[in-house]
Write a structure and sequence with these properties.
heterotetramer, A mainly alpha, B alpha/beta, C alpha/beta, D mainly alpha, C: alpha/beta, Rossmann fold, 2 domains, 7-stranded parallel β-sheet, 6-stranded mixed β-sheet, 15 strands, 39% helix, disordered N terminus, D: ABC transporter involved in vitamin B12 uptake, BtuC, two-stranded antiparallel ribbon, globular
C-alpha cells in the first residue's frame, strides 16, 4: 500500500463535482461559459482561502472557529490601510492576522485546551474588536475605490484574486505534503500520541496550523474588503461555516490527519458550483441551504460506506485516544 | 554476549518519590556496553520509574548518573536523546498515515527542508537494512505493517538517531512468536554492533534467551545485577517475588458439571473451517493461538460481536446463536477483550461504576438506579475478585495495570454470569497479579462458572485450563485435556511447525514463561 | 507545576492582540470619515409581519400608459429568507409584471463578497440587462459593485438604502424607503403621544418625559438614520432620553431588551418608548405588561416599520406607528424604472417624497434622483373598533394598511 | 496476598473534581454579583435578576438539552437553532389554523423529536455528529423557508397564551420551565440508568458497548432530548410573541454552545452536569445584563464576553488537568 493520490473517496468527490457541473450545464447551457467559469473561480478565491485555513487546523485535529471574525478585522485594517497601496494594505492586514494566529495557536498548544472550545471565545472576542474598531459601522475609502479594479481584472478565467488564492493553496498543499514541518503537522494530526513518542515538538504543529488559518482568513478578508471597497464589522459571519463545510465535503476529517489540499479545492468547487448554479437559476438562497445540507449528508454517507473496516476501526481507536488525551495535560 | 564490556551507564543511590510515595529508594543500576540487561519486577516495583528517569521525563530526587564515565543529568527527553538513550515504546510511536521513511525521520530534526519520497527513501534504506527489513519499501505506509515490523522500524528509527542505549519496554507483549524471533535477532544484532539494551519484560523465558545479566526491582529497591547464566526460572521467580511462588496456577477442577455452552459447526469471519466445542459447568477452556489464529474469533462470535455465518450456539439448551451483545449479557455471558484500555474499563469513572457497568439492570427498577444496591453489588464483586473495597471510589484509570485488568474481568461477576469469555486474561500484568487473577478465575469455575479464554501465552493456557484447544490460522488443530498436552505439542500446533519449518527452536522455548 | 505558572499570560497575550488591533482601528477610523448623512434602511431589515391576510392581490393598478415592452430588470439582492425582503421582491415583481418588464433576481446570503461575485459574473457573461437594481448586501457596503455596474453604461437603481454621497455619481437613481423620514415620523408621533399623555392626565416622571429607544442590531445604518430623524424631529421639545439600546429585529429581542431596561430604570420610570420597528415594540409591550406597566395608559409606545401582528395597534397598546410597507418599496422600484424608460432616461434632480395617496400613483413623468415611498404615521386610540377601522380604511397605493403590513 | 504497590492519594483529588467545578462556577457567579452590585446598584434588584434569568431561560433550556449530546461524547449539535425555528413555525401555524393549544404544542414537539431521532440514528450509526447536525441544520432551515414562503407566521391567538406570559408567584413561566427542566435532567442524569449510560458512553464508548449498555438507544435519546428542548424554546417563543419566522433564533447555536462550555462540561464527554450548564447560561446573561446597565459599547461587550468565556474554559481546563494528572 504505497501512496495513492486518487483515493476512492477523492474520486467520489470529483464525481459529485462533475455531476453538479453537468447538471447545471444541462439546465442552463451558458453555465459552462468562460464568464461563468471565471466567476466560479472568483468565488473559489475567498471560500478557498478560508477552507484551506480551517482545513489546515482540521488536519492537525483542531478547529479554528474564529476565522470569520479575524477576516472582518483584517478587512477593516486593510481598508484603513489602503492609503499605503493595495499590496501593503493586504500585507499589513495579513501580518496582523498572522500575529493573532500565532498567539492563539500558542495559547492552545500551551494550555492544551480543546480548540473548538477556546476559539468559541475568540470568535466572540475578535468580533468585538471589529465593532470597537468601526464606530461608524461601515468603512468606505471612496477615494481609493479604483483599487478594486485591479482585483477583478480578468485574465482568461482568472483574476489576480483567484490567482493569489490558487498560488497560496498550492504552496500550502506542497508545504503539507513535502516540507518537514508540514509532514510533522500531518503526523501530529494523524496520531498525536505516536508523534509525541517520536519526539515531535508538540506545540509547533498547532501554532503553525492556527497561524495559517488566521493568516489565510486575514488574506481572504482583506482582499474581499478591498474588492468591495468597504468593510463592515459584521461581515464574514458565514465564512466559518462555508469553510468547514467545504473542507468536510473535500474529505478532511474532523479527527485530523486525513485529507489533502486538493480535496479541499474540490470541496470548495463543489460548493461554489452549487451556489453559482442555484443563484443563476434565480432561486432563493434557502434552496442553497437545502442543497448544501443534502450534499453534506451525502458525502457523509459516501465516506461511511467507502471507508474500509480496518480504517474505521483504526479511526475509532484513534478517536478514543484523542478522547483520553484531551483530559490529560500535554507534556 | 560480551561479558567483558566496559561499564557504560552507572546509576548510584537514586531515589525518587511522588508526594509521600517512594517510587525508587536508593536504587543502583549498571549497564555495560554491548550487553542486554534484563530489567525485571512486578508492576509498581519501580521499573517504569527508572525508564522514565532514563528517558528524561522525570528527574531523580537524589543520586548520581554516570554515562561513559562522565556525570550526567537527563533532565529532559531531548537531553536523554542527546545522551544516546532511546526508548522503544511499548505503545508504538509510529504514525500510521505517514510512510516508513517519513516515520524514520519524524521528530529527529536530521532531515531539514523538503521531504520528497525519493530523498527520504534513499536515506531510509541503510537504516532498514540494519534491522533486517531489507525487503521493505520505505515508501509504504506504516498502517500496512505488522506489529513486529512496526517494532523493527521503531528500532531502525532509533538507530538512525545514533542511540547507544536501547530501552525495550515489553517489546514482545503484542507479538506473535514468529515476530518475537525477528525482534530477538535484531536485539542480538544491536549488541553485536556494540550497542547496549535494557530489556524490560514480564516474560521470564525471554530473559534466558536473550539477556546477559538481569537486574530485579522489588518494592522500589534494586537487587544487584546477576549474570543470567547463574539463574534458573525458580531462582529468578524467587528473587522477583521475594518469596516462593508456590503454585502459579491453582489446581484444576476435580469434576465438571453438565454441558453448559455448546457450539456446533460454528463458522465466522476469522475461522477457515467450522468448529464445535462443548464447555461444561465449572470448566475452564483455553483456546491457544497466535494473533489471527481464530481463537478470539470464536469468543467474539459467541458474544454476538462478529457475525456468525453458520452453526449454532446453545447456552443450557437455549439457542443463542443470533443473540446480540445485550441479549448475550442478559443470558449470563460476559466477554472481556484483550485491550482493556480500549473497551475494558472506563478510565475516568470510579471503580464502583466500572464494576457495576455491565449490570445496570440489576440495581435499577424501571430505569431508576438504587445507589445502595449498586454499592452492595460492587462490594460483592470486589470481595469475590479480591479487590480492595476502599478503592471503589477511585478512578479506574489511576489503578495499576494489574488492578485495571482485575476490574475489566471482575466487572462481569456483577451479572452473575454463567459463561465468561476472556481474551488474553493477563496481558501486560505482572506476575503477582497474574497469579491472583488465575486463582480468582479458578475459584469462580469451582463455583460453577464456565470460562472460555483465548490466549497466545502457552504456559497460561496449559496452566489454567481444564481443556486446551489449539488454533492455527483459522483452523482448530487439537482438543485435549490440559493434563495430556505437552508444551512442545502446543507450540508446534499454534505455530504449525509440524507443517511449515519457519519457526526456530528458540520459539519453542518461549513457552516456559512463569 | 512550573508550566502552569505562566498561564496567566494567556489572557494577557489575547489582550495585547486585541489592543494592537483596536489601536490600529482608532487611528484610522477618524480618517475614514463617513460622510453619509443620507438615510438608509438595514439590509436584514426591520419588520416582520403577518402571513395570513390574503397575500393581497396587488391592488396596484399600474398606469397603463407605461408599457415596458418586455425590457429586462436584473436584481441583485440579499436573501428572501428574510420576510421583509421576500415581500419587497413580491412587490417589485408584481408591479414589473403589470408594466410588462421581465425580472431576474439573483440572491445572496447577506454577504457582500458573494454579491460582488454575482455582479462580476453577470457583467462577465456579456449579456447586459436593460437596467440593474442593486440592494446592497452589507448595509452601505457594496460601493465597488455599484461602480462596476455603472461602468457598463446600463442604468442602475439602488434600492432600500441610498449610497453615501461619494457614490451617488455611480447610481442612476434611488428608489425605496427614507429611514431618516421614518425616524422623523416616529418623532412626531412621539411628540403627539406626549401631548395626548398630558391631556389624559398621565403623570410624567420628568418634565420632558422619560424615553427609551430600542434600536436594531449594531452596525445597521437604518438605526443611525432613524435615530437621527427622531432626534431632529424632537429637537424643539426633546425628551429625556434614558437609554438608547441596540437590540435586534424580532419580538423576542424587543422583549429581552425592554425587560432589562425596565429593571435598569426602575427608579427613574419610563414614560415613552420608541422602538425602531413594530416587532420590537410588540416585545417591549409584552415586557411592560408583565412588569405591570400598561402601555397606552402608563407608558406610550411608538414603533417604526409596520409588521404582521397588528393587535397592539388594534387594542391601542401601541400609540402609533410609522407605517413603512415592504411591498411599496418593491412597487416604487418598478415604478421608478418604468418612469425612467417612459421618459427616455431622464432623471430629475432632487427627491420625490409623495404624499400618502389611496390610489396607485399614476405618474408617468420622469423619476427623481431619490424616489421615496410614502411613510405615513398613524395614531391609534383606546377605541378598538376605531383602531381596526383605521387599519382597514387607510388605503395606500391601492391596498389597505392591514394588508400592506401583513407579510 | 496483595501485590498492589501503587501511588496513593490520587483518589481524593479526583473525587473533588466535580466539586471543584461547582465551586469555580459559584465563585464566578458571586464575583459577578458583588462587582456588579457595587458598581450598578440596579443590577441586584429582584426585578432585574428575574429579568436576567428570564433572558437566560431560552438559551439555558436548549443548552441543558445539548448537554446530553456533549455528555455522550458527540460534541455539540449545530442544528439547535434551526430545530427551534421550525418548531416555532409549526407551532404558530397550528395555532393560526385554530388547533387547540395542547395540540399546537405537542405536535411540533413531536416533529422536533423526529428531527432529533433521525440525527441521533445517523450519529449512532457512526457518522460524525458535527457534520450530521451541520447538514441537518442547513436542510431544516431550507425546509422552514419553503413551508413559510419566507413570511412571518402569525399565531393569531386572541389572548396571550398563558404559556408565554403567566407569572406564577411573580416569576415568569419561562423561568419556571427552565428550573423544572434543569431539576428533571439532573435527576435523570444521576438517578436513572439512561443518565448513567449517557455518562458512561461519553467516558468510553467502546467499553460502554462491550458492557452491553444500550448505546444506540442512549445516543438517539440524547439527540431527541436536545432537539425537543430546542423545540420547547421555539414553542415558548411563539407563546411569548404570538408569531414565528425563519430569522428567529439567529446566532442561537453559538450562544447555546457557549453556555454549555462556560458550564464546564467536558467537550470530550462523560463529565458535566445540566445544573452547571444552566449556571453557565445565567452567568453569560448576567454579564450581558450588567454591561447593558453599565452602558458599555457593543464592541466592548463582545470583547468582555469573549474574555469571560475564554477565561472560564481556561479555568476549567486547568482544574481538569490538575485533578486528572
Amino acid at each position: 500500500m504505497t501512496y495513492k493520490f486518487f483515493t476512492p473517496s477523492l474520486l467520489s468527490r470529483i464525481g459529485i463535482l462533475l455531476f453538479l457541473w453537468l447538471a447545471f450545464t444541462a439546465l442552463s447551457p451558458n453555465f459552462s461559459s468562460f464568464s461563468n467559469v471565471y466567476s466560479v473561480f472568483e468565488g473559489f478565491a475567498i471560500a478557498g482561502l478560508v477552507a484551506a485555513g480551517v482545513g489546515t487546523t482540521m488536519l492537525v485535529g483542531e478547529l479554528d472557529l474564529s476565522v470569520g471574525s479575524v477576516a472582518a478585522v483584517a478587512g477593516i485594517i486593510a481598508v484603513q490601510c489602503t492609503g499605503f497601496g493595495l499590496v501593503p494594505a493586504v500585507l499589513i492586514a495579513s501580518a496582523v492576522a498572522l500575529v493573532y494566529g500565532l498567539a492563539q495557536g500558542w495559547i492552545i498548544a500551551r494550555t492544551g485546551i480543546n480548540s473548538l472550545v477556546f476559539t468559541i471565545a475568540t470568535l466572540i472576542l475578535v468580533r468585538g474588536v471589529a465593532f470597537a474598531m468601526t464606530p461608524t459601522a461601515v468603512l468606505m475609502p471612496m477615494d481609493r475605490i479604483g483599487m478594486s479594479d485591479f482585483l477583478i481584472f480578468r485574465l482568461f478565467i482568472f483574476s489576480p484574486f483567484s490567482l493569489t488564492t490558487i498560488c497560496v493553496i498550492t504552496a500550502l498543499g506542497l508545504f503539507l505534503g513535502y516540507a518537514r514541518w508540514g509532514r510533522e503537522m500531518m503526523a501530529f494530526g494523524g496520531a498525536r500520541n505516536e508523534a509525541r513518542a517520536a519526539g515531535l515538538n508538540m506545540r509547533r504543529p498547532i501554532i503553525i496550523a492556527f497561524a495559517i488559518s488566521a493568516t489565510l482568513a486575514g488574506l481572504a478578508g482583506s482582499l474581499a474588503s478591498i474588492k468591495s471597497a468597504s468593510a463592515a464589522p459584521f461581515s464574514y459571519e458565514g465564512m466559518l461555516l462555508t469553510g468547514v463545510t467545504a473542507a468536510l465535503v473535500g474529505g478532511v476529517s474532523l479527527y485530523g490527519g486525513k485529507g489533502t489540499m486538493f480535496g479541499v479545492v474540490i470541496g470548495v468547487l463543489i460548493l461554489r458550483v452549487l451556489t453559482a448554479g442555484i443563484a443563476s437559476r434565480g432561486a432563493a438562497v434557502y434552496v442553497e441551504y437545502l442543497a448544501t445540507g443534502v450534499i453534506l449528508l451525502l458525502v457523509l454517507v459516501v465516506e461511511f460506506t467507502t471507508e474500509s473496516p480496518q480504517r474505521r476501526a483504526w479511526s475509532e481507536r484513534r478517536a478514543f485516544e484523542r478522547q483520553l488525551a484531551a483530559v490529560s495535560v500535554p507534556a | 554476549m560480551t561479558e567483558t564490556g566496559v561499564s557504560l551507564l552507572d546509576m548510584k543511590n537514586i531515589s525518587k518519590s511522588y508526594g509521600h510515595v517512594q517510587a525508587l529508594q536508593d536504587v543502583s543500576f549498571n549497564l555495560r556496553s554491548g550487553e542486554v540487561m534484563a530489567l525485571l519486577g512486578e508492576n509498581g516495583a519501580g521499573k517504569s520509574t527508572l525508564v522514565k528517569l532514563l528517558s528524561g521525563l522525570i528527574t531523580p530526587d537524589s543520586g548520581s548518573i554516570t554515562l561513559n564515565g562522565e556525570p550526567r543529568t537527563l533532565g529532559t527527553p531531548s537531553a536523554a536523546r542527546a545522551a544516546g538513550i532511546a526508548v522503544v515504546q511499548q505503545e508504538f510511536s509510529l504514525v500510521p498515515t505517514l510512510t516508513i521513511a517519513e516515520n524514520l525521520f519524524l521528530g529527529s530534526g536530521d532531515v531539514r527542508g523538503l521531504w520528497t519520497g525519493k530523498r527520504l527513501a534513499n536515506l531510509a534504506r541503510p537504516l532498514l537494512d540494519t534491522v533486517g527489513l531489507e525487503d521493505l519499501d520505505p515508501r509504504r505506509f506504516v498502517s500496512s505493517l505488522s506489529v513486529g515490523e512496526l517494532q523493527l522500524v521503531e528500532i531502525a528509527r532509533l538507530m538512525g538517531r545514533n542511540a547507544e542505549i536501547f530501552i525495550l519496554d515489553e517489546p514482545t507483549a503484542a507479538l506473535s512468536d514468529v515476530e518475537i524471533v525477528r525482534v530477538m535477532q535484531v536485539v542480538k544484532r544491536l549488541t553485536a554492533m556494540g550497542r547496549s539494551v535494557i530489556y524490560v519484560t514480564h516474560r521470564l523465558g525471554e530473559v534466558f534467551q536473550i539477556a546477559d545479566r538481569a537486574t530485579i526491582f522489588r518494592n522500589g529497591r534494586s537487587l544487584d545485577p546477576v549474570p543470567v547464566s547463574e539463574l534458573t526460572i525458580d531462582t529468578l521467580v524467587e528473587r522477583l517475588l521475594g518469596r516462593h511462588l508456590g503454585e502459579m496456577y491453582p489446581p484444576r477442577a476435580a469434576s465438571l458439571g453438565a454441558p453448559r455452552l455448546e457450539i456446533k459447526d460454528l463458522s465466522t469471519p476469522g475461522l477457515s473451517a467450522p468448529i464445535s466445542l462443548t464447555a461444561r459447568q465449572g470448566e475452564i477452556v483455553g483456546l491457544a493461538g497466535q494473533m489471527g489464529s481464530g481463537a478470539s474469533s470464536v469468543l467474539r462470535s459467541v458474544m454476538g460481536i462478529s457475525f456468525t455465518s453458520s452453526g449454532t450456539v446453545h447456552l443450557d439448551g437455549t439457542d443463542i446463536t443470533k443473540a446480540n451483545r445485550q441479549k448475550a449479557i442478559s443470558m449470563g455471558v460476559g466477554y472481556c477483550s484483550d485491550d482493556r484500555k480500549f473497551d475494558g474499563i472506563f478510565q475516568l469513572q470510579s471503580v464502583m461504576k466500572n464494576l457495576s457497568s455491565a449490570a445496570i439492570n440489576r440495581f435499577s427498577t424501571a430505569g431508576w438506579l438504587s445507589n445502595s444496591r449498586e454499592r452492595s453489588l460492587a462490594g460483592q464483586v470486589a470481595s469475590k475478585f479480591a479487590f480492595d473495597e476502599s478503592r471503589l471510589p477511585s478512578n479506574a484509570g489511576n489503578l495499576s495495570g494489574g488492578n485495571q485488568q482485575k476490574v475489566a474481568v471482575g466487572k462481569w461477576l456483577a451479572i452473575s454470569p454463567k459463561v465468561l469469555l476472556v481474551e488474553e486474561p493477563t496481558r501486560g500484568v505482572d506476575v503477582g497479579a497474574r497469579a491472583e487473577i488465575y486463582r480468582n478465575l479458578r475459584t469462580l469455575a469451582d463455583e460453577g462458572l464456565t470460562i472460555i479464554f483465548a490466549s497466545s501465552d502457552m504456559a497460561e493456557v496449559k496452566g489454567l485450563s481444564d481443556t486446551v484447544m489449539t488454533f492455527y490460522r483459522g483452523h482448530l488443530i487439537r482438543v485435549l485435556p490440559a493434563g495430556e498436552i505437552t508444551d512442545q505439542q502446543m507450540m508446534l500446533d499454534v505455530t504449525h511447525a509440524s507443517v511449515s519449518s519457519t519457526p526456530t527452536t528458540d520459539a519453542v522455548n518461549l513457552s516456559d514463561e512463569v | 507545576m512550573p508550566k502552569r505558572a505562566k498561564l496567566w499570560l494567556a489572557p494577557l497575550a489575547l489582550a495585547a492582540v486585541g489592543l494592537v488591533a483596536a489601536c490600529g482601528g482608532s487611528t484610522s477610523t477618524s480618517a475614514a470619515s463617513s460622510a453619509a448623512a443620507a438615510p438608509a434602511a438595514p439590509a436584514a431589515s426591520s419588520a416582520a409581519a403577518e402571513p395570513a391576510a390574503p397575500a393581497a392581490s396587488d391592488a396596484a393598478a399600474a398606469p397603463a400608459t407605461m408599457d415596458g415592452g418586455g425590457k429586462s430588470i436584473s436584481v441583485f439582492m440579499p436573501s428572501t429568507s428574510n420576510n421583509y425582503l421576500a415581500e419587497w421582491r413580491r412587490g417589485l415583481e408584481a408591479t414589473a409584471a403589470d408594466l410588462n418588464y421581465q425580472v431576474t433576481v439573483v440572491e445572496n446570503n447577506f454577504d457582500q463578497s458573494e454579491q460582488d461575485l454575482q455582479i462580476q459574473q453577470a457583467l462577465a457573461s456579456g449579456t447586459k440587462a436593460d437596467i440593474y437594481v442593486i440592494w446592497p448586501a452589507d448595509s452601505k457596503a457594496g460601493v465597488a459593485s455599484l461602480r462596476s455596474l455603472s461602468q457598463t453604461g446600463v442604468p442602475t437603481v439602488v434600492a432600500n438604502q441610498p449610497p453615501p454621497a461619494e457614490a451617488v455619481p455611480f447610481m442612476t437613481m434611488y428608489a425605496g424607503v427614507n429611514d431618516y423620514l421614518n425616524g422623523q415620523v416616529a418623532g412626531q408621533l412621539e411628540l403627539g403621544a406626549r401631548d395626548a399623555a398630558i391631556a389624559a392626565g398621565m403623570k410624567l416622571n420628568s418634565p420632558e418625559g422619560n424615553l427609551v429607544e430600542i434600536m436594531f442590531t449594531p452596525g445597521y445604518q437604518a438605526s443611525v438614520a432613524r435615530h437621527d430623524g427622531f432626534i431632529d424631529a424632537t429637537k424643539a421639545a426633546p425628551f429625556n432620553m434614558l437609554a438608547s439600546e441596540y437590540s435586534g429585529f424580532d419580538a423576542e429581542a424587543g422583549y429581552n431588551t425592554m425587560s432589562q431596561l425596565i429593571a435598569a430604570n426602575k427608579g427613574k420610570g419610563i414614560d415613552f418608548v420608541y422602538a425602531h420597528n413594530d416587532a420590537l415594540a410588540l416585545g417591549a409591550n409584552k415586557a411592560l405588561n408583565e412588569a405591570g406597566i400598561v402601555p397606552g395608559k402608563d407608558v406610550m409606545v411608538v414603533g417604526g416599520t409596520c409588521h404582521g401582528d397588528l393587535t397592539a395597534l388594534e387594542n391601542g397598546q401601541q400609540y402609533g406607528s410609522g407605517l413603512q410597507a415592504a411591498r411599496l418599496e418593491g412597487n416604487v422600484v418598478a415604478l421608478a424604472v418604468a418612469r425612467y424608460f417612459n421618459n427616455d432616461g431622464t432623471v430629475l434632480d432632487g427627491e420625490d417624497s409623495p404624499e400618502p395617496s389611496p390610489e396607485f400613483p399614476a405618474t408617468s413623468t420622469a423619476p427623481y434622483k431619490y424616489n421615496y415611498i410614502p411613510n405615513p404615521g398613524l395614531v391609534f386610540s383606546s377605541d378598538e373598533a376605531a383602531n381596526k377601522a383605521i387599519l382597514d380604511d387607510t388605503v395606500l397605493w391601492g391596498d389597505t394598511m392591514r394588508n400592506l403590513c401583513t407579510y | 496476598m496483595s501485590t498492589i504497590v501503587e501511588t496513593a492519594a490520587k483518589p481524593r483529588l479526583v473525587m473533588s473534581r466535580a466539586k471543584a467545578f461547582n465551586v469555580a462556577l459559584a465563585v464566578g457567579v458571586v464575583v459577578v454579583l458583588i462587582v456588579s452590585g457595587l458598581t450598578q446598584p440596579e443590577f441586584l434588584s429582584a426585578d432585574n435578576l428575574v429579568a436576567t434569568v428570564r433572558a437566560a431561560a431560552l438559551i439555558g433550556i436548549a443548552a441543558v438539552g445539548m448537554t446530553f449530546i456533549t455528555l455522550t461524547g458527540n460534541f455539540v449539535s449545530l442544528s439547535t437553532e434551526q430545530t427551534a425555528v421550525i418548531t416555532a413555525i409549526l407551532c404558530a401555524m397550528a395555532l393560526g389554523a385554530g388547533w387547540p393549544m395542547w395540540a399546537a404544542v405537542v405536535v411540533p414537539l413531536a416533529v422536533a423529536m423526529v428531527i432529533g431521532a433521525l440525527q441521533g440514528i445517523f450519529v449512532a450509526l457512526g457518522l460524525n455528529s458535527i457534520i450530521t447536525t451541520l447538514g441537518a441544520g442547513a436542510a431544516i432551515f431550507g425546509i422552514a423557508n419553503v413551508i413559510t414562503n419566507s413570511k412571518t407566521i402569525q399565531a393569531r391567538v386572541p389572548d396571550p397564551m398563558w404559556l408565554g406570559t403567566a407569572r406564577p408567584l411573580g416569576i415568569p413561566i419561562q423561568v419556571w420551565i427552565f428550573v423544572v427542566l434543569v431539576l428533571i435532567t439532573m435527576v435523570v442524569l444521576r438517578k436513572t440508568s439512561f443518565g448513567r449510560t449517557v455518562k458512561m458512553i461519553g467516558s468510553n464508548s467502546n467499553t460502554a458497548r462491550s458492557s452491553g449498555l444500550r448505546i444506540t438507544r442512549a445516543v438517539v435519546a440524547s439527540f431527541i432530548i436536545a432537539s425537543v428542548f430546542a423545540g420547547i424554546c421555539g414553542v415558548l417563543l411563539v407563546a411569548q410573541v404570538n408569531q414565528a419566522k425563519t430569522l428567529n433564533f439567529t446566532g442561537f447555536n453559538i450562544d447555546v454552545v457557549a453556555a454549555v462550555l462556560v458550564g464546564g462540561t467536558a467537550i470530550q464527554g462523560g463529565e458535566g452536569s445540566t445544573l452547571r450548564t444552566a449556571l453557565g447560561a445565567i452567568v453569560i446573561a448576567m454579564l450581558t445584563n450588567y454591561m447593558l446597565l453599565a452602558q458599555y459599547e457593543y464592541g466592548t461587550r463582545l470583547i468582555i464576553t469573549g474574555f469571560v468565556v475564554g477565561g472560564a474554559v481556561i479555568a476549567f481546563n486547568w482544574v481538569r488537568g490538575k485533578s486528572s494528572s
